[in-house]
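Researcher: Sequence recovery benchmark, item below. Answer with residues only.
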């Protein structure tokens, strides 16, 4: 970008996970105990080691479930609604919830219906109760992919989506999730919302990275949830219940281990491209989905694998001095090659997206 090129670094994000390792570790330890260990231990202990009716067993299990999530829900609600809130979306009314909390509310209502239907009968529907976490995966995966599909199709935001005003370009869903979770749950507040929005609008590469990560998590969530659902309804009930609560955590762990080095690599590439002036193009400081970007980590890996017919880049004649330019690594590549990013998976079919 022409205005951003005067800076050697992309706009910083004033938030570090390194200083919050202890708090993060405590939260996730309690969350795993509450959402994974507790329902499994109570089920196996009460179902097989007591004479309680099956209905009473699941009444106890569901009554003890989700304490951390319930606390987190009302903690977020308080932080968003309080008079002097520094966590609510930018330029939003006091009564406006952020996008994550709206979805948090909807998914809790869905789960409440699911658990009531599954536990009210005298002989509970064990398989339905085992579907709690896969349902969450289906919901958030579907919502996040839907936002990015609408974004690719050129739709504008029909209402305020956290700090993105109504009528703006539909934001990539992962950007909204990061903004809301870090600002409210992580304590980053409006300072972080503003910094993240500045980075998002300033860097096409950053937007492109978030789009690819959103597809990775959203698509992976739906595919894995479908596989877990198939397992739940084919194996025996005790195994189905156990796997229904365990496999989503296993999936999340694997996806996280893949995501960390992936994002770190892309952030290094973004910094190099910024320093080399390789982020020019598109409308400056605007969510321009057609702005060209240097090749991301995903596209580089994709180009090396190159085993799917639709993933193969079109062959073109060698570049001439008039239609070539330096890439982010200082080499010369074709106008639509390394610097322009010609791999598949673009947000826009005809021109590269951010």
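Model:
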């Amino acid at each position: 970008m022409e205005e951003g090129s005067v800076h050697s670094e992309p706009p910083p994000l004033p938030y570090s996970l390194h200083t919050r390792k202890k708090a993060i570790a405590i939260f996730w330890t309690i969350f795993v105990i509450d959402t994974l260990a507790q329902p499994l231990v109570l089920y196996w202990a009460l179902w097989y080691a007591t004479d309680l009716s099956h209905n009473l067993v699941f009444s106890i299990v569901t009554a003890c479930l989700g304490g951390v999530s319930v606390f987190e829900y009302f903690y977020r609600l308080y932080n968003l609604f309080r008079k002097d809130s520094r966590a609510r979306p930018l330029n939003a009314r006091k009564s406006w919830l952020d996008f994550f909390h709206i979805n948090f509310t909807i998914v809790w209502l869905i789960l409440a219906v699911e658990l009531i239907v599954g536990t009210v009968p005298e002989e509970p529907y064990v398989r339905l109760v085992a579907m709690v976490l896969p349902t969450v995966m289906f919901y958030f995966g579907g919502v996040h992919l839907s936002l990015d599909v609408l974004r690719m199709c050129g739709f504008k935001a029909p209402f305020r989506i956290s700090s993105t005003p109504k009528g703006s370009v539909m934001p990539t869903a992962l950007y909204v999730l990061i903004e809301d979770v870090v600002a409210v749950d992580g304590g980053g507040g409006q300072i972080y919302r503003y910094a993240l929005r500045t980075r998002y609008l300033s860097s096409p590469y950053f937007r492109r990275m978030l789009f690819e990560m959103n597809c990775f998590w959203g698509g992976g969530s739906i595919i894995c949830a479908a596989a877990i659902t198939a397992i739940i309804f084919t194996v025996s009930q005790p195994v189905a219940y156990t796997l229904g609560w365990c496999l989503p955590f296993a999936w999340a762990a694997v996806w996280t281990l893949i995501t960390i080095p992936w994002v770190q690599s892309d952030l290094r590439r973004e910094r190099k491209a910024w320093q080399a002036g390789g982020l020019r193009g598109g409308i400056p400081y605007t969510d321009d989905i057609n702005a060209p970007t240097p090749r991301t980590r995903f596209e580089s890996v994709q180009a090396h694998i190159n085993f799917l017919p639709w993933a193969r880049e079109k062959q073109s004649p060698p570049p001439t001095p008039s239609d070539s330019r330096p890439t982010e690594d200082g080499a010369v590549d074709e106008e639509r090659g390394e610097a322009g990013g010609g791999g598949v998976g673009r947000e826009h079919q005809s021109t590269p997206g951010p």
